[in-house]
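Throughout our pipeline, every protein is held as a single compact record rather than as scattered files. Nothing more is needed to write down the fold, since each code stands for a local backbone conformation. For reference, a complete record is included directly beneath this paragraph.
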Amino acid sequence: MKILLIGKNGQVGWELQRTLATLGDVIPVDRNQMDLANPDSIRAVIREAKPDIIVNAAAYTAVDKAESEPELAMAINGVAPGIMAEEAKRLNALVVHYSTDYVFDGTKQGAYTEEDIPNPINVYGKTKLAGEQAVQAVDVQHIILRTSWVYGVRGKNFLLTILRLAKERDELKIVDDQIGAPTWSRMIAEATGQILAQKLSPFSINQHSFSELYGVYHLTSGGQTTWYGFTKAILQHQSVIDCGLLPKLIPISTKEYPLPAKRPENSVLSSGSLIKTFGLTLPVWDRALSICLDEINF
């Protein structure tokens, strides 16, 4: 079993290299080996690798910068996944693709389900939705996993930014009127590995063949919080306290922290379909955060 992992150095990709290693021969590539803005580069790598499974963990994730680089963001997030799907179909391969809570406008009361109609409000969200649609437009085996507020011990993310700022500043102003579920990249990778392990199992799932389970699933931690609540939980972890990182936290509104890209007020996704279909449940966000912080060498 050959698994082509695209985006090996990203938050999720780095974790996937480890969780997928027991499932087959993992072929990890990064932007130096596959240029996602170049269709010929994508096709060449896939045709050389001839994988049974393509896992696309790469994306243009600079949400605010995307507002000024919509063409590049669309090429990477919107067009590239469709090309991967086309090449996968030629090989009769499965595509696993990651998407985002930002495909929704955030106006719903309560958690979003897979049945809710997307309505992105920024360029990043629009390009990620285009990527979902590009994969779905190809008659190919596919699983699209929407996640939210991803963080980890590598790369650029909210957790690492807060830890850095806590060392530099005595006061932090954090948005307190957007809600979501912070989701550890390792949990995303482990859940992906378990889904693929079920596909590779000779046994059926819930009396259905795996092919009947293709589609879109929400994959996030349980519970919900705000960016302020997320920050507070980070700074209240014992290892952070022991380092003397105790800046004053000040909750602010989204209007008080304007950014180029508009953010959804509600980014909470229901993972009920994932639980029902694959029997997978991610831990509540603050429990996962605690485990992650235990691993960081302060």
